[in-house]
Amino acid sequence: MPEYSIGLDLGGTNLRAAAVSREGDILEKISVSASPQKGREHLLGEMVAVIGDLRSRWGTGQLGGIGLGVPGFILLKDGVIRNSNNLACLEDFPFRDEMERRLQTPIILENDGNAAALGEKWRGAGRDVDDLVMLTLGTGIGGGIISRGRVLHGFLGMAGELGHLTVVPNGTPCGCGNRGCLEKHASATAITSMARLLGLGDDLTSAGVYSLASNGNEHAQTVFRCMGEALGIALAMMVNVFNFPLYLLSGGVLPAWDRFAPAMLEEMQRRSFTFRTTETKIEKAILGNEAGLYGAAYLPWIAAK
Amino acid sequence: MPEYSIGLDLGGTNLRAAAVSREGDILEKISVSASPQKGREHLLGEMVAVIGDLRSRWGTGQLGGIGLGVPGFILLKDGVIRNSNNLACLEDFPFRDEMERRLQTPIILENDGNAAALGEKWRGAGRDVDDLVMLTLGTGIGGGIISRGRVLHGFLGMAGELGHLTVVPNGTPCGCGNRGCLEKHASATAITSMARLLGLGDDLTSAGVYSLASNGNEHAQTVFRCMGEALGIALAMMVNVFNFPLYLLSGGVLPAWDRFAPAMLEEMQRRSFTFRTTETKIEKAILGNEAGLYGAAYLPWIAAK
């Protein structure tokens, strides 16, 4: 009987994998640098090696399945990454099939934002609900929608691209072709861009901008207010669309919550009748960057249902 | 064995009800003026009379159930209309319970936009898919989301309020508290407001503005282009969120399709990577204002499943 699964979370900078028990406890975790600049062959080799390591240590007979979370627009049925800002070397290539060939076992592919949302639903801040929306605020913004306990995929697996909601119709151009995408106005990258434009410094991180804001710098505070407003516009729309009980925020920008949340919540109050008049929760995710690992590892169990 | 159901569609101006066979054929249809200005008691009496008529003619024993489509934000579990621009007299009142008491039978309540989307899924342009989003472009804009063959309700039944998507963050104020709601920029009301502001006339209908545009009036053409752009922003977001195969447009503004659709589709091309690269269909609904009737009548059959 299967006792554990393997989840892998591939990011632009890190590749993390874990053997996770059926109950959702991490048995072993491996983290290596992803180095996408070394090309596709290197990346595939790294992933196969990491998964192979875990499988050989925890046993082939007990393995319930392997789930892979990867960034970008994914064609689920084909197992192909259509478009990924961070992993261009894996685009339009039979990614899942090649991984299956090398590992000689089925692989379940998932968008990283969806995997993170699923992880929070399984073991995190969403474990008491069946419906939630999660936004991961990092270099970009990933989204994941859990409806009736499962990832909402759409017909090709490209649903949940919430980083590309339009929040400023004539705003900053985005790699996806749109202008004013949420991720151009509320990601870590957006925070440092705004800080640069306001003359706060050329090589600040979003954490650096947060420090400035916390030390009373009004320009830095404005940056977080603008970012919170953009986030509030997007979340208000999601509340109006889904009327789900829970919306989670995650990612590297989350520690700046006290700086952006007031403007975000004020915007939601104004813009969503549903938010204003119901008990809708906006909360911090709790699994940090392990959410995607948990979610990827959970994929084989729900696929078997 | 139940052979038919009764669907009722309550609008701001008309009250329509029909006895519909299990196979989805309308057996008899009644349409009366809704007259909400005559107050709640009058409206309840009218609805009870119309349903009573149909039931007495088609038989109590064969009746599978009664579905009611009503406009506004609805608390489904409570059977209460929270907020309705068109039917304020029914707000915050135990609407479903009172109807059940008077008719001595269970009633299934549904938002009118959801009912219309469900009707198109059952018998209309959506009958070949399990997932669709529908927008009804009328005095306001109603939305309905069908996911896995059922209405997506959210935890209170308030999901699908797509008329209140923000398409112009600092746009026209809306009764819901927001600014720049889709329905303030792409409904029939929005079309006549824009026409008025552009000096085309003070008492034009949206059909009148359409005639002007078709006769070469450039201001009138601009009105439909702006309306199409607003619609395109909203639809591009819905494509990015849901990745559903089908998005339907319906309502009184639909005949102006040739005037607004080019700008709408252009905006979607630009704003949605998913739309640009997949076979996503944007189509006209085909049941007209009977969609809500069909959907309301379908409610008892899916509730029984």
Overview of the molecule:
Two copies of one chain form a homodimer. The first copy, chain A, has 305 residues and is α/β, with parallel strands linked by helices. The first copy, chain A, folds into two domains: 4-117 and 289-304, ATPase, nucleotide binding domain (Nucleotidyltransferase, domain 5, 2-Layer Sandwich); 129-285, 2-Layer Sandwich (Nucleotidyltransferase, domain 5), CATH 3.30.420. The first copy, chain A, has ten helices and twelve strands. Chain A has helices spanning 40-58, 95-103, 112-123, 182-186, 188-197, 206-214, 218-242, 257-271, 273-277, 291-304, and strands at 4-10, 14-21, 26-33, 63-70, 73-75, 80-83, 107-111, 132-137, 141-147, 150-151, 246-250, 281-284. At the A-B interface, strand 9, helix 7 and helix 9 of A face strand 9, helix 7 and helix 9 of B.
Task: Please give a handful of descriptors for the protein shown.
Nucleotidyltransferase, domain 5, 5-stranded mixed beta sheet, 305 residues, 2 domains, homodimer, 12 strands, alpha/beta
- What's the CATH class label of the largest domain in chain A? Alpha Beta
Major interchain interface with per-chain residue totals = A-B, 47 and 47 residues
Order of neighbouring strands in the sheet with most strands of chain A: 3-2-1-4-7
Assign the structural class of chain A, choosing from mainly alpha, mainly beta, alpha/beta, alpha+beta, or little secondary structure.
alpha/beta
Number of domains of chain A: 2
Number of helices of chain A: 10
What is the β-strand count of chain A? 12
Strand content of chain A: 15-25%
Using the 3D structure, state the CATH architecture of the largest domain in chain A. 2-Layer Sandwich
The average pLDDT of chain A is 94
Gyration radius of chain A, in Å:
19 Å
- For the termini of chain A, the CA-CA separation is 15 Å
**CATH homologous superfamily name of the largest domain in chain A?**
ATPase, nucleotide binding domain
Low-pLDDT stretches of chain A: none
What is the ordering of alpha helices and beta strands of chain A? EEEHEEEHEHEEEHHHHEHHEH
Shape of chain A: globular
> What percent of the residues of chain A sit in helical stretches (DSSP H or I)?
40-55%
